[in-house]
Amino acid sequence: MVIHHSAMPPGKARQNFLVVPAAELIARITQHIPDKGFQMARYYG
């Protein structure tokens, strides 16, 4: 089991931590990695 603490202050969020199995946490994080060769449109300014 892994405990992930969020950066939100306790008063702003209902719950500022998450307890999940390690495999599920890795699966959630890797969903945000784009596919190889995927063009990311990023704008600045």
Give the helix/strand layout.
Blueprint: E1 2-5, E2 17-20, H1 22-30
Antiparallel strand pairs: 1-2
Could you characterize what this model shows?
This protein has 45 residues and is of the alpha+beta class. The protein is built from 1 helix and 2 strands. It has one domain (1-45). The chain is 20% helix and 18% strand. The termini are far apart. 0% of the residues are buried.
Helix content: 10-25%
Low-confidence stretches: none
Strand order of the largest sheet: 1-2
Largest sheet: 2 strands, antiparallel
Could you spell the SSE succession in H and E letters?
Answer: EEH
**Overall pLDDT score:** 84
Label the structural class: alpha+beta
Distance between the termini: 41 Å
Q: Tally the helices: what do you get?
A: 1
Radius of gyration based on Cα positions: 15 Å
Number of domains: 1
Mass-distribution shape: flat
Residue fraction in strands = 15-25%
Number of separate strands: 2
Summed up:
The mean pLDDT is 84. This protein has 45 residues and is α+β, with helices and mostly antiparallel strands. It contains 1 helix and 2 strands, in the order ββα.
Key features?
single chain, 45 residues, two-stranded antiparallel sheet, 20% helix
